[in-house]
Amino acid sequence: MSLAPVSTTTHSLAGIETPCLILDEDRMLHNIARLKTRLARLGVPLRPHLKTAKSIPAARAVMDSAAGPAAVSTLQEAEVFAAAGVTDILYAVGVAPQKLDRVAALRRRGVDLSVVLDSVEQAAAVTAMARMTNDRIPVLIEIDCDGHRAGVGADDPLLVEIGRALHQGGAELRGVMAHAGESYSCRSVAALEQAAEQERAAAVACAEVLRSAGLPCPVVSVGSTPTAHFARRLDGVTEVRAGVFMMFDLVMAGIGVCAVADIALSVLATVIGHRADRGWTFIDAGWMALSRDRGTAKQPIDQGYGIVCDIDGRPYPDLIVTETNQEHGIIAVRPGSTAPQAALPVGTKVRILPNHACATGAQHDRYHVIAAGSDAVRQWERFRGW
């Protein structure tokens, strides 16, 4: 894979083949500045999660330096970013023992790669690799702050057991990490603030338990895009992780973390036909381009498979992608709306705002990057895989 970060073309969006992924650079930079400014006021640095961006130039736009820090969700992300000079990386998914060879290989290259786990079995595998390679692999213990997924709690004897197994077994117990996954179900500012405080308190409590047991815990890492934007205090926290905030999406807008106008990612598509008797307009972007994600279906406003905008990114009133096939999308007025059907002749270019930026981005191998006031379009390479 080429690591050349940027190529420039003279094409405007009107001349680009569809479907393709569009990134509004100005919106992305605004979203980055907004969160960094907020966290600076709270006195805690950002460790950006690059799982949404999956792009070297996008990573460079959000990291504090070319070396990081960064969080990733796959070892392929770690490998690609490491090749581009990122050396401070947290692999923020529970590590599988079979992947420790790749972890060790990255660390031999000088990458300060830390891993995450929440079981004695994983700890045993990490310490075995640490002894074999004579490398104290750094580890963060995953904390369960809301019952959403994995992790251990402050009152669980397993926390100290895992900590001792790591500390005494040859690995480096670097700290704890929590992710408030249930914050994605919040529907009010009060609920988001409560989720953020619950996340903070759980991680800090676990850190104190480890320290009381005579174990080191220098890092207390928390984060999700909703809680990062609604935490009122971060006492005891050493870093915040967040990722989708760079692009935002309709799920985040539905939670109340951003406005629709903040969404930096869209899919450019072309109108290819109509069924006037059903009020349908067909586009050349189906679930292969938009993804099957229906993350807004459980929210107060169901956005179908995405909001339909004109080529400049302005939403049409109540126009959404209501259905998708593999390579066809169906545009129609939102059910229950009295808005008129927009006149979109065959050949019209439209942009679809995604439900889930990570899922939609994963369908594409590059961004077509635009900036306000210019019709020049740059391409940034994305990567996929594990």
From TrEMBL:
UniProt keywords, alphabetically: Lyase, Membrane, Transmembrane, Transmembrane helix
Superkingdom of the organism of origin: Bacteria
Residues of the D-serine dehydratase-like domain: 264-371
GO MF term (any one): D-serine ammonia-lyase activity
Any single GO BP term: D-serine catabolic process
Any coiled-coil regions, as ranges: none
InterPro entries reported in the protein's UniProt record: Ala_racemase_N, D-amino_acid_metab_enzyme, D-ser_dehydrat-like_dom, D-ser_dehydrat-like_sf, PLP-binding_barrel
Pfam family, one: Ala_racemase_N
Positions of transmembrane segments: 250-272
Family note: Belongs to the DSD1 family.
Name used for this protein in its record: DSD1 family PLP-dependent enzyme
Organism expressing this protein natively: Bradyrhizobium septentrionale
